[in-house]
Write a structure and sequence with these properties.
Alpha-Beta Plaits, two-stranded antiparallel sheet, 4 helices, flat
Length: 119
């Protein structure tokens, strides 16, 4: 089963937010780095990328042939996607096992597992 794991950071501290990140102990920071290192070294995972904060987004729509842009995300979100990766798992239980290892899952965020539709 190929699936996309969407990482909702929530209020999870990340290195991108030095103030929040600095509140973690060195051991906690090292644990986050180690967890992502393990995930990224899994041969069944295609690492994705982290994304900037939602307020940096530009949303594009086309209406009657005119391209319209809006500053910010498509929808107002309390928890925005902070990153993603693609996983090749045997089944949903295997995907859940990997998702539970993503630091955001235990630090205030959530991981959404979405099966990939292959045509």
């Amino acid at each position: 089963m190929k699936c996309l794991l969407l990482i909702y950071q929530g209020d999870t501290p990340t290195p991108a937010d030095p103030e929040a990140w600095g509140k973690l102990s060195q051991d906690e920071q090292n644990a986050v780095y180690a967890a992502y290192g393990e995930i990224n070294n899994n041969p069944n995972i295609t690492p994705g990328v982290g994304m900037a904060q939602p307020e940096t987004a530009t949303t594009v729509r086309v209406d009657n042939g005119a391209t319209l842009t809006t500053d910010g995300p498509f929808a107002e979100l309390k928890e925005a996607i902070g990153g993603f990766f693609v996983l090749e798992a045997d089944d949903l239980d295997g995907a859940i096992e990997i998702a539970a290892k993503v630091p955001a899952a235990s630090m205030g965020g959530a991981i959404e597992i979405r099966p990939v539709v292959e045509y």
